[in-house]
Design a protein that fits this description.
This protein has 11 helices and 11 strands. It is α+β, with helices and mostly antiparallel strands.
């Protein structure tokens, strides 16, 4: 089945377990194939993940573990698993919510993202990870392709894992953590000590050494994702997996503002410090908890909202005053831009991402979703500059205006 092209897949058009009509193939992963299905009685779309044909019992146990672990986690920022079964071909499958949107990998491929919006995305990932870790589970394979950005207008409000939402308001959950294929339960280990699993570009040093890992390993991986969102480059690149893992173990990451000097005005030193602390080699030197990461990113988002600096969303950065634009990569005249804009070129380091080529329509959809999310968190919705009134009084007035606008949207 996995070798068949989508138009010849025998599962397409069939009905699984007398209620899931298979409509089309959505994607192919390392262990399974994902289909879009429609529930025959509920008239609702779901995603069906079917395990590839294999005789490896360990792979089968991992697939079943993915369904079991993910189904235990109930949180708006984690994909929901609703059903599990076995096909007549003895292939196990599970059913999860159908997500409309794009991965963070697609977003990075499309263009640069506003720093304030990156903070809010990081906040929601942190919240989802808190729920994951509360179930004594470590994801172990966090990467841009495993995090989905969905339309916030169709999303539910987020809550803290303990049920207490200490934010100013419950914002829609526009982030979903997916793919628990190699997630590890502290009570059950399918990979013994000394075995290395995961994606090298986002792997913590302790995971690269094959040592036991805990929630701090996921924090490191999230730091790699935030770093890439800021720079469109992964912290460490190399000719192969071993070179990349060696750098994770021994090399210090170049600060994002140095990595992208043309974007230094749009990456705050505070946000840079938060990300670099997440990338500390020793777990004990990272943030004390994912809750601390959430609070740090939320505080920085609030500070950016009140700051007088210009912010920008778009496929290329604006040059600072006096900067020689001939030295910048893919500069664009923002006076001629529109809210939806195709990226000029892919990221410098896209060796394992995105998993598919993004066409013009997909890029337009990605920019539209970013715009919708930006409207929720009060980031700019286009590449045009957004000016904040100068002076303390102007900042207070701008903050009150944004607060009123948010309350008005929530009321609607």
């Amino acid at each position: 089945m996995s070798q068949d092209p989508p138009d010849k897949d025998p599962l397409i058009g069939s009905v699984v377990d007398r209620r899931y009509k298979v409509l089309k193939r959505l994607g192919v992963g390392g262990m399974g194939i994902v289909y879009k299905v429609e529930h025959s009685y509920l008239n609702k779309f779901f995603a069906l993940k079917v395990m590839r044909t294999t005789k490896d019992e360990t792979d089968r146990k991992r697939f079943e573990q993915e369904a079991r672990l993910a189904s235990q986690i109930r949180h708006p920022n984690v994909v929901e698993i609703s059903d599990f079964g076995v096909l007549p071909t003895s292939q196990p499958y599970f059913v999860m919510e159908f997500l409309r949107g794009h991965t963070i990998g697609d977003a990075i491929y499309t263009g640069f993202i506003d720093s304030q919006l990156i903070c809010h995305i990081g906040v929601q990932i942190s919240r989802g990870l808190q729920a994951v870790h509360k179930q004594n589970v470590v994801h172990r394979d966090l990467k841009p392709d495993n995090i989905f950005l969905i339309d916030p207008e169709a999303a539910e409000a987020t809550e803290s894992p303990d049920g207490n939402d200490d934010s100013a308001q419950a914002e829609p959950a526009f982030v979903k953590i997916m793919d628990f294929g190699i997630a590890k339960s502290m009570n059950n280990n399918l990979t013994g000590t000394g075995m290395t699993v995961g994606t090298p570009e986002y792997m913590s040093p302790e995971q690269a050494r094959g040592e036991p890992v805990d929630w701090r390993s996921d924090q490191y991986s999230l730091g790699c994702i935030l770093y890439e969102m800021l720079t469109r480059e992964i912290p460490f690149d190399g000719k192969g997996a071993f070179e990349v893992m060696y750098k994770h173990l021994n090399a210090a990451p170049m600060p994002p503002r140095q990595r992208r000097p043309e974007r230094a005005d749009y990456i705050s030193p505070q946000l840079e410090a938060i990300v670099l602390k997440m990338l500390a080699k020793k777990p004990k030197e990272r943030h004390s908890s994912m809750r601390a990461v959430e609070h740090a990113l939320r505080d920085e988002a609030s500070r950016l909202l009140l700051a007088s600096h210009d912010t920008v969303i778009g496929p290329a950065p604006l040059p600072p005053p006096g900067h020689d634009s001939s030295q910048s990569r893919d500069q664009i005249d923002t006076k001629k831009t529109v809210p939806i804009m195709r990226a000029v070129s892919p990221p410098d380091s896209s060796n394992n991402r995105p998993t598919r080529k993004i066409d013009v329509q997909d890029q337009a959809g990605m920019i539209d979703i970013i715009g919708r999310i930006g409207g929720i968190v009060h980031s700019p919705r286009s590449v045009a500059l957004v000016k904040t009134p100068a002076g303390p009084l102007g900042r207070v007035r701008a903050w009150l205006h944004s607060l009123w606008d948010r309350l008005r949207k929530l009321w609607k």
